[in-house]
Amino acid sequence: MLKNLYVAVLLIAAGPAYAASVVASVGGVPITDTDITARVKLMARQGNTATDNRRIALQNIIDDNVKLSYAQNFNAVPSDEDVKKELKRMNLGDLSASERAMAMNAARADIAWQIVVARTVLPTISASAEDIAAERASLAREHGLPIEMTIVRLVDIPEDVAKKLTKPKNCDDAMEIASKLGGAPQKFTAAQYELSADIRERVATLPKLTWSPRADNSVLLVCDTKKTKEYGDLDKIIKQNAMFKQAMFIADQQLKQLRRKAVIVINDDRYKL
User: Fold this and answer.
1) Is pLDDT at 15 greater than 90 in this prediction?
2) Considering the domain 146-227, what is its CATH architecture?
3) Interval 45-67 mean pLDDT
4) CB distance 97 to 231 below 8 Å
């Protein structure tokens, strides 16, 4: 009798502690404090250390569950083998059991969502010339393209002299125009991705044979360009990137709708909006 009473007391005591650890649920699937801690550690490994990281971690876990639930409708949930390959590619280092389980679930959701987007959203997308030009410019400014550029640079040039620079016909003509105005032009050739960030930013979208606006007492002019051997199918990739960005924007809106329809219960006031 006393033994049974002792066991009952233990169960009653343990019950609320376990219940308190379940901070939320999605479609009846519980999310615990342990899950959130594992996700926070995973986020830290990926360089995400926001102040409200536990709230963000919970939102990420909720999104993972919503994505996976929706992906099942399209038979788009990847196998363990594919998920393990993705984890290996991510190179997250040594993971604890809980971190690895969380990383597996996160990677599975990401892969599943990409498959869903590729099947249902991308086929409806078309990239305009403006979209492609914007994507190309963004890539050029941030990273530089595999394009060899011959650039004429004039440094320490007064503003009144810069205004007298006329449009040249070619590189030699640009050098001659600058020299006649009393400047000491420099000409150099480099791949766009090899340029310093400040110069790359100024020439990324600069039309050929057009003097740049004066900045830091200097002007630049791209007088010749040539695609390098590395260029390959870059035009095709840029178009695909432009389409993918549009598709992901639409997918984000779709995810918000799915989240609103999902049965999400937040049990812990710390995580309520």
Assistant:
1) no
2) Roll (3.10)
3) 90
4) no
Output the pLDDT for position 273: 60
Report the pLDDT averaged over residues 233-243.
93
CATH 1.10.10 fits domain 2-123+249-271? no
How is the chain split into domains, by residue range?
2-123+249-271, 146-227
